[in-house]
From TrEMBL:
SUPFAM superfamilies: P-loop containing nucleoside triphosphate hydrolases (SSF52540). Pfam families: ABC_tran. Gene3D superfamilies: P-loop containing nucleotide triphosphate hydrolases. It comes from Kitasatospora nipponensis. The keyword ATP-binding applies. Residues 1-39 are annotated as: Disordered. This is ABC transporter ATP-binding protein. SMART domains: AAA (SM00382). InterPro entries: AAA+_ATPase, ABC_transporter-like_ATP-bd, ABC_transporter-like_CS, ABC_transpr_LolD-like, MacB-like_ATP-bd, P-loop_NTPase. Keywords: ATP-binding, Nucleotide-binding, Transport.
C-alpha cells in the first residue's frame, strides 16, 4: 500500500508541476489588481457527436449554420460564483455537456477553457489533476465505494492529492460535520439512508475545496426532505463563493439556481437569470431576508471556503 501510494504521489507531483507551468502561462497570470475575474468556464463552438454517417447522434450541436446546416456548436460563459441549473428533457445533452465541463469526456470539436486553461491541450494525467484540484462531482447515484466508511470515502480525493493521513482525517471529518454527518463517519453506505449517502458524496466533492461543483441530478434519487437538506448545503457552498453547475428535471430544484439554461436536442434554447452572480442564491437569499425580519429566525450559512 505504502509503495503504491508513494508512486502515485510522485506521479501526481510531476503532473502538478506541469499544471503549475500551464497556469503560470495562462491568461489569469499577471492580471492587474482590481481587474474583473474572467469566466471560470468558457466554452466555444463545442460539439459532441456519436457514431458515423446516417447513424450520427449530435448530442451537443448548438444552432445550425444557416448556409451549410452544419452544427455550429454550443458557446457559453459561466462566471465564478454563479449557480447554473441545466434543464431539458431526457436525451437533450445535459450529461454530455456536464461530462465535458468536468473533463470526464472530450468534445468532438470546439474549445473549453477552465479557469483560463485550455483543457484541450492537457494530457490524461494533467486532466485528472484538474479534476482533482478544481472540480467536485456529485452524481444521482451517489457513486460511493461499497463496504467503505463515510470517513474513508471523503478522504479518498485527498489521498489522490497526496495529503498526509492525519491532515486527511482532519479535513474529511470537518467536511462530514459540514454536511451534518459528523456522527456517521464510521458508517458504510449500506448503513446510511439515501439522503445521508448523498451528503457523504457532497462532503467528498467539497473536501478538496474545489472552485467548482458539478452535480448531475444530485437530488434525483432523494425524497423531499433529503432533497431540501442537500440543496441547503449546495446553496451554502455557492453563497461562500463556489461555482455550481447542477443538472435537474425539477423546477423546485432549479429555483435554487441564479441562472437556468434549457437544452433541446443539444442546443441551448433559453438562458434565464434568476439572481445576481454575487451574493447568496435566490432561495437562501429569501430565507436570510426572512430571518433578518424575524429576530428569532435562523440564517446560518453552511460551508466556508478553506
Ligand atoms: N456513449 C454514447 N454513445 C452514443 N450515443 C450517446 C452516448 N452517450 C450519449 N448518447 C446520446 O446523446 C444524447 C444526449 O445524451 P445525454 O446523456 O447527454 O442526455 P441527458 O440530457 O443527460 O438525458 P437524461 O435526462 O436522460 O440523463 C442522447 O441521444 C444519447 O442517446
Ligand atoms: Mg443525463
Amino acid at each position: 500500500m505504502a509503495r503504491g501510494t508513494r508512486g502515485r504521489r510522485s506521479r501526481a507531483a510531476a503532473a502538478a508541476d506541469a499544471l503549475a507551468g500551464l497556469e503560470e502561462s495562462g491568461p489569469h497570470e499577471g492580471r492587474p489588481a482590481g481587474q474583473p475575474t474572467p469566466p471560470v468556464i468558457q466554452v466555444r463552438r463545442l460539439t459532441k457527436s456519436y457514431g458515423h454517417g446516417d447513424a450520427t447522434v449530435h448530442a451537443l450541436r448548438g444552432p445550425s449554420d444557416p448556409e451549410t446546416g452544419e452544427p455550429m456548436g454550443v458557446s457559453l460563459d459561466i462566471e465564478q460564483g454563479d449557480f447554473v441549473a441545466v434543464m431539458g428533457s431526457s436525451g437533450s445533452g445535459k450529461s454530455t455537456l456536464m461530462n465535458i465541463l468536468g473533463c470526464l469526456d472530450v468534445p468532438t470539436a470546439g474549445r473549453y477553457l477552465l479557469d483560463g486553461i485550455d483543457v484541450g491541450h492537457l494530457d490524461e494525467q494533467q486532466l485528472s489533476l484538474v479534476r482533482n484540484r478544481k472540480i467536485g462531482f456529485i452524481f444521482q447515484s451517489f457513486n460511493l465505494v461499497p463496504r467503505t466508511t463515510a470517513l474513508a470515502q471523503v478522504e479518498l480525493p485527498l489521498a489522490y492529492a497526496g495529503v498526509r493521513a492525519a491532515e486527511r482525517r482532519k479535513r474529511a471529518l470537518a467536511a462530514l460535520a459540514l454536511v451534518g454527518l459528523g456522527d456517521r463517519a464510521d458508517h458504510k453506505p449500506n448503513e446510511l439512508s439515501g439522503g445521508q449517502q448523498q451528503r457523504v458524496a457532497v462532503a467528498r466533492s467539497l473536501v478538496t475545496a474545489p472552485a467548482m461543483l458539478l452535480a448531475d441530478e444530485p437530488t434525483g434519487n432523494l425524497d423531499t426532505r433529503s432533497t431540501s437538506e442537500v440543496l441547503a448545503i449546495i446553496d451554502g457552498l455557492n453563497a461562500t463563493g463556489r461555482t455550481v453547475v447542477l443538472i435537474t428535471h425539477e423546477d423546485e430544484v432549479a429555483a435554487h439556481a441564479k441562472r437556468v439554461l434549457r437544452l433541446v436536442d443539444g442546443q441551448v434554447i433559453s438562458d434565464v437569470r434568476q439572481g445576481p452572480v454575487a451574493g447568496p442564491p435566490p432561495v437562501l437569499a429569501a430565507q436570510l431576508a426572512g430571518a433578518h425580519q424575524s429576530p428569532g429566525g435562523q440564517g446560518e450559512l453552511i460551508g466556508g471556503r478553506r
